[in-house]
Amino acid sequence: MSFSIRFLGTSAARPTIERGVSGLAIVREGETLLFDCGEGTQRQMMRYGVSFSLDDIFFTHTHSDHVLGLTGLLRTMALQGRTEPLRLWGPRGASKTLRQCITLGGDHLTYPVSVTEIDAGSTLQRKGYQIVTFAVDHGPGRALGYAVEEHDRLGRFNPDLARSMGVPEGPLWGKLHKGETVTLPDGRHVSPAMLVGDARRGRKIVLTGDTRPCEATITAAFDADVLVHEATFANDEAERAVETGHSTAAEAAGVAKAAGARRLLLTHISARYSRETDMLESEARAVFANAQVARDGMEVVLPLVEEPAAHDQVSPP
Fold first, then answer.
1. What would the pLDDT profile of 136-173 be if each residue is shown by its tens digit?
2. Cα distance between residue 18 and residue 12, in whole Å
3. Running DSSP on this structure, what letter comes out for residue 202?
4. Predicted local confidence at residue 202, as pLDDT
């Protein structure tokens, strides 16, 4: 089952020659979820092969470098003859700005667009996965991070053992794999525990948007396969990071380490580091070894995992 991240814009505040402003797509089993839509996002989608046939756009907050690309994207979809509804999601207070983007220019859209404000701690259930929101710390306004979490997968079914036990191939195998005890023609009862291994954990991607390091991110990113965390500044601009509600690369790495994340991808890079990100990467890796600065167009594919689902684990304090 495919599950991947495509970075569309990795610059903070303003675009540079190398980097567009905030935009990121997650693609799972052919379904595309867009997170933030900064200026030029639609061109980046075309450039990097991200489909316009998406149903949802999620906004971390409504600062201009995260929303200004929405108007153009909506117009292009209309010009392409879209008729399917589009859903926009954002934190409390986002509706006014998003609706202004929808109506800007006065062109008539060929499809309905809904805007839903969601609170931190909300869970949107989807087929095979869920999207969980959490509050991040980006100044006085409300801002959200998002965790995209796959449901646990069924354990492996042992067909050879099933045959040796005389379980006929067909519907009974399917029932056992789904957790049902079955009765064989000879009257024997066969339970799933006899033929099916432990459930396997689903994959998890966590996105922060703009934020200071915060406990909510640590909790949300517990045991994540990938944490995408902003890293606007290097250590020499730590005071500036505090003043503007952003993080340094080393601070982002501290969050990843505290959360027990498996991989850290750094984005929202200040223009001063746009071409030369070695300093950011080095400072992050000094804290958390598996850290990397993302670049526009970068794709990260998450492989399936065979680790058992650990329901007895708890998130970090």
1. 999 888 999 999 999 998 888 889 998 999 999 999 88
2. 12
3. P
4. 96
Question: Which of 124, 235, 175 is closest to 133 using CA atoms?
Answer: 124
Is the distance from CB of 1 to CB of 304 less than 8 angstroms? yes
In the prediction, which pLDDT does 32 show?
98
Distance CA 242, CA 218 (A): 18
The superfamily (CATH) of domain 3-153+201-301 is: Ribonuclease Z/Hydroxyacylglutathione hydrolase-like (3.60.15.10)
Query: Two tokens at 172?
Result: 């009974």
How far is the CA of 186 from the CAs of 162, 166, 177, 190, 194, in angstroms?
15, 10, 20, 11, 17
pLDDT at 314: 45
What's the burial of 280, exposed, middle or buried (CB within 10 Å: 0-12/13-18/19+)? buried
How confident is the model at residue 316, as a pLDDT? 52
Q: What is the predicted pLDDT for the residue at 312?
A: 45
**C-alpha angle 311-58-268 in degrees, rounded to nearest 5:** 95
- For the chain, the structural domain boundaries read 3-153+201-301, 159-194
Is residue 118 a contact partner of residue 132, using CB atoms and an 8 Å limit?
no
Cα separation, 149 vs 128, whole angstroms: 9
Please list the ranges in the chain whose pLDDT falls under 50.
Answer: 312-315, 317
**What HEC string does 127-168 produce?**
CCEEEEEEECECCCCCCEEEEEEECCECCCECHHHHHHCCCC
Backbone angles phi, psi at 115, to 5 degrees: -125, 125
- pTM for this prediction: 0.90
Catalytic residue numbers read: 65
